[in-house]
Design a protein that fits this description.
With 665 residues, the protein is α/β, with parallel strands linked by helices. The strands form 5 sheets. Strands 3-2-1-4-5-6-7-8 form an 8-stranded mixed β-sheet, with helices on both faces. It has a 4-stranded antiparallel β-sheet with strand order 9-10-12-11. The chain has a 4-stranded antiparallel β-sheet with strand order 13-17-19-18. It is elongated. Bound molecules: flavin mononucleotide. Flavin mononucleotide is lined by residues 319-323, 356, 359-360, 363, 417-418, 420, 494, 584-588, 645-646.
């Protein structure tokens, strides 16, 4: 159907919010937009649909994959094409009568006059990190009395500032003159968001790096910018309504449901802004320090060369009790290796039969299989029959298999994590529950412990289990060994900040852990176990969606059964991550009641032995037969990702020669 373009019909649905006369005025207006990235492209298309008749647009860049999350025009068919060309085409497709002047080399000192020539309004679309050009264009606008507007996407919101001739200018507001670049960027950010209402949505502050000119962004923020900037444009161009001009600003955060009109007379010279900048400088410095530390701690050294190394590079992120990583790798070709397992029974009261270590090695094998699937490879495992349960060796071979395709759990290998803090008590969504039940291999099932009454029973059970954990010297020795103090990340321990205690309780624990006498003193006279038991066990047990027990169809007996259990566990844990659930193992009730069942003398403490017997009985009452065939227990729930976590040893540290090596702590 050939339909001829007709301006009046094309933009007739604007009428009502604008009059026919105003529409005609907009048709005669000329708007300059510098930068056609996250916001500039959307500004152009929004203003084109408003019926603005002429544009000057500039950008020297072309479309790249990293633009896809937010930029109008960033599509597969436009990859590599110049942004001005693509957006001019898109805008002309909306209004073929529009006049578009393209500035494909960007705005510079030698073309800024031409760029702003005859323009009624300048709309800023420059990248956040482009400071010098931004200052130049705004200064030129002030010089020529051209009104200008800037709308910055801040998370899932927008902060907009209008610079109206005769009022505060861009420079008077931001005060960038004579400042080094990093300070200019900080001042720009501070001036854009005096209210800081976007910060509640920021989940990973390490992604903002002023020095490397990197920052996170969302399409929602950019689209909100286009809506707000085009509204400012309408008001300025039609002289309608009250325009909020600098030093006042508009800030709306769609995530936090908040809107603020900010007022900072003197801009960044305002005492409030100075204070804000002082704090900002400090927090950016500490953040940069943290980034450096994190980078040091991020333990990947070199790009892995072979398929096997690539797989192991990822597989080392498998979970293990207390982050002991009871495995070493002997490379045996491009697609083969031998996993040398070990167990920690000689020093760890939680692993006296080696089960926790065997489960961890099983989880490692499953991770190898998932990682290999990315390259269409099937992982085959063969446990060497002549090796012992305490030091098993498993041959791994990766073979081509056309039936293997990338496992969807692949993306979650590094994302899977232990979260020991409270989750939301919101119950599991039926679809998530179904997915978790379906992910288990044959031979395993999940028993759910959910609903307020059952969660309370389990909370009491964990509270009791924690008394054993916190009062026996055998466990004290383990805790002293496995926790890294004053740490947010740890390569081969659990950082204290990931344990789940608040800062005060953590301080107390740090002190108490200095000696067994201190622990005993606290326990005897100051009810020392109460605070950690409530914080680490009782409350988290209530604050979760559900607890689970993974049970085998028949009671597991030897190492091979536990390796299988570990594989099942890892599928379950990765699947939980894939549906956005937080996860914490709760193994001690299972471990201590198992010791009672198998007659393992795990402590000299008589009260703890009696507690373990009660624990066994209560667990059986709660989950029935599954208590005996249970291999793993924990809790799940919706909530935030932890901000402290265990890392892993680098592949080079995990690699050994053919005879393996002793690797105890
Ligand atoms: C067999 C096994 C038992 C575990 N038991 C517990 C536990 O009882 N409580 C807990 O908080 N974490 C437990 N964990 C979690 C580990 O401490 C955690 O996986 C390890 O520190 C690595 O950290 P990440 O899972 O955050 O990568 C267990 C993990 C495994 C594999």
């Amino acid at each position: 159907m050939a339909v001829n373009f007709d301006y009046d019909i094309a933009f007739s649905r604007n009428i009502g919010w604008v009059t026919e006369r105003e529409q005609a005025i907009l048709r005669g207006k000329r708007v300059a937009i510098a930068g056609l990235g996250g916001v500039g492209g959307s500004h152009l298309l929004t203003l084109a649909r408003l019926g603005v008749g002429a544009f000057h647009i500039s950008d020297f860049d072309s479309f790249d994959l990293v633009n896809f999350n937010r930029q109008a025009g960033a599509t597969m068919s436009h990859l590599g094409r110049s942004k001005v060309d693509v957006l001019a085409e898109m805008a002309l497709d909306i209004n073929p009568e529009m006049e578009v002047r393209k500035f494909p080399d960007g705005v510079k000192e030698d073309n800024v006059h031409e760029f702003l020539d005859g323009v009624d309004l300048y709309v800023d679309g420059l990248d956040f990190f482009v400071v010098a050009v931004r200052r130049m264009v705004f200064a030129e606008c002030a010089e020529r009395s051209i009104p200008s507007t800037t709308a910055a996407p801040l998370g899932m919101g927008v902060s907009a500032l209008n610079f109206i001739p005769g009022k505060t200018t861009f420079e008077q507001y931001f005060r960038l003159e004579g400042q080094p670049e990093k300070e200019q960027l900080l001042r720009f950010l501070a001036g854009l968001s005096p209210a800081q209402i976007q910060m509640g949505a920021l989940v990973d502050d390490t992604r903002l790096n002023l020095e490397e000119h990197r920052g996170p962004s969302t399409s929602m923020g950019c689209e909100l910018c286009a809506g707000v900037a085009a509204t400012q444009a309408l008001k300025i161009l039609l002289r309608r309504g009250s325009v909020v001009a600098a030093p006042r600003g508009l800030h709306f955060d769609a995530f936090g449901n908040r809107m603020k009109i900010t007022w900072r007379p003197g801009g960044n010279n305002n005492p409030l802004q100075r204070l804000f900048l002082a704090i900002g400088r400090k927090s950016i410095t500490t953040r940069l320090e943290r980034q450096v530390r994190q980078r040091l701690a991020s333990t990947q050294e070199a790009q892995p060369a072979t398929a096997m190394e690539r797989v192991l590079e990822l597989a080392r992120w498998a979970p293990s009790g207390d982050n002991t990583q009871p495995w070493r790798f002997e490379l045996a070709g491009k697609r083969a290796c031998v996993v040398h397992g070990s167990d920690t029974r000689d020093w760890c009261v939680y692993d006296l039969q080696g089960r926790a270590s065997q489960i961890a090695v099983g989880a490692l094998l499953e991770t190898i299989a998932v990682a290999a699937s990315k390259d269409g490879l099937r992982a085959e495992f063969r446990r060497r029959a002549d090796t012992t349960e305490t030091a098993p060796q498993i041959e791994v071979e990766l073979v081509d298999d056309p039936a293997i395709s990338r496992d969807s759990l692949y993306d979650f290998i590094k994302q899977r994590v232990t979260q020991r803090r409270s989750f939301s008590p919101e119950p599991l969504a039926p679809s998530d529950k179904q997915r978790l039940e379906a992910c288990l291999p044959d031979g395993f099932r999940v028993v759910w412990i959910e609903g307020d009454a059952s969660k309370k029973r389990l909370a009491r059970l964990l509270f009791l289990s924690a008394r054993i954990r916190l009062t026996i010297p055998e466990a004290y020795r383990v805790h002293k060994e496995i926790i890294e103090w004053n740490a947010r990340y740890s390569e081969d321990h659990i950082p204290d900040q990931a344990v789940g205690l608040d800062p005060v309780a953590l301080k107390m624990m740090r002190w108490a852990m200095g000696s067994w006498e201190r622990v005993r003193f606290l326990n005897r006279y100051l009810a020392g176990t109460w605070m950690p038991r409530i914080q680490l066990d009782y409350l988290p047990a209530l604050k979760c969606a559900a607890h689970f027990l993974l049970a085998a169809d028949s009671k597991p007996a030897g190492i091979d059964d536990y390796l299988q259990a570990g594989r099942a566990l890892q599928r379950f844990w990765l699947s939980a991550s894939a549906v956005g659930l937080q996860f914490q193992p709760e193994m001690t009730p299972l471990i201590f009641s198992g010791y009672v069942r198998d007659g393992i003398d795990f402590t000299a403490d008589t009260r703890a032995r009696a507690d373990a017997r009660i624990l066994k009985r209560r667990l059986e009452q709660l989950v029935g037969d599954a208590a005996e065939s249970g291999v793993f227990m924990g809790r799940l729930g919706y909530g935030s990702y932890p901000d402290a976590r265990s890392l892993r040893l680098a592949l080079s540290k995990l690699s050994v020669g053919a005879r393996g090596q002793q690797f105890s702590r």
